[in-house]
Amino acid sequence: MTTLPRKNIMDLFIDGARRGFTIATTSLLPNVVMAFVIIQALKVTGLLDIVGKVCEPIMALWGLPGVAATVLLASVMSMGGGVGVCASLVVAGTISCHDATVLLPAIYLIGNPVQNTGRCLGTAGVNPKYYPYIITVCIVNALLSLWVMQLLF
C-alpha cells in the first residue's frame, strides 16, 4: 500500500488560494465585467428604458421595477453576469438595495442553465429531451423565490 505524502496546512491553503484566484480571474471576473459593459451599452442606447417599460407589468407581479428583468435574463446566461447586472443597476440607482436583495436568490436558483446544459448535463449523459424541463424548473424556482423574498422583506 502506497501512502501519499502529507502536505502541511500552509501548502494546502496556498494550493486552494491559487485555484480560487484562477477561477475568479478566468470565470467570474469576465462575466461581471461583461455585465457592467452590457448595462452601460443598454443605458447609452436607451434600450434599458425600453426593456424596463416592456417588462414593467410582468415584474410588477413581484413588486419589482421593469428593469429588474435584465438581471433575470442575464442570470439565465451567467450567474456572475446576473450579479454584475444587479450590482450595476444598484450603483446607478436604477433599482434599490431592497430590490437587489429580493433578486439575489433568484439569480442563484436560475443557476445559469445555458452554461450548465453543456458543462454539466451534457457531460453527465442526461438525455437532451429533458433539458427544457430542467431549465423550466430552475426558472420557476427563481420566480417563486421572488415572492418568498418579498414576503420576508
Note poorly predicted spans: none
What fraction strand? under 5%
Cα(first) to Cα(last) distance is: 57 Å
> Can you count the beta strands?
0
Largest sheet: none
Report the mean per-residue pLDDT as an integer.
86
Task: Please give the oligomerization state of what you see.
Answer: single chain
Q: How many distinct helices?
A: 7
> Helix proportion of residues, in percent?
over 70%
Radius of gyration: 19 Å
Coarse morphology: globular
The H/E string reads HHHHHHH
> What is the total number of structural domains?
1
Structural class: mainly alpha
Features:
0% strand; 153 residues
Structure description:
The relative contact order is 0.11. The chain has one domain. It has seven helices and no strands. Helix 1 packs across helix 4, helix 3 runs parallel beside helix 5 (97-110) and helix 5 (97-110) packs antiparallel against helix 7. The model has no long low-confidence stretch (mean pLDDT 86). The longest helix is centred in the first third of the chain and has 37 residues, at 9-45. The chain is mainly α.
Ordered list of secondary-structure elements with their pairings:
Elements: H1 9-45, H2 47-59, H3 68-77, H4 79-91, H5 97-110, H6 113-124, H7 131-152
Helix pairs in contact: 1-4, 3-4, 3-5, 4-5, 5-7, 6-7
Short synopsis of the structure:
The protein is mainly α.
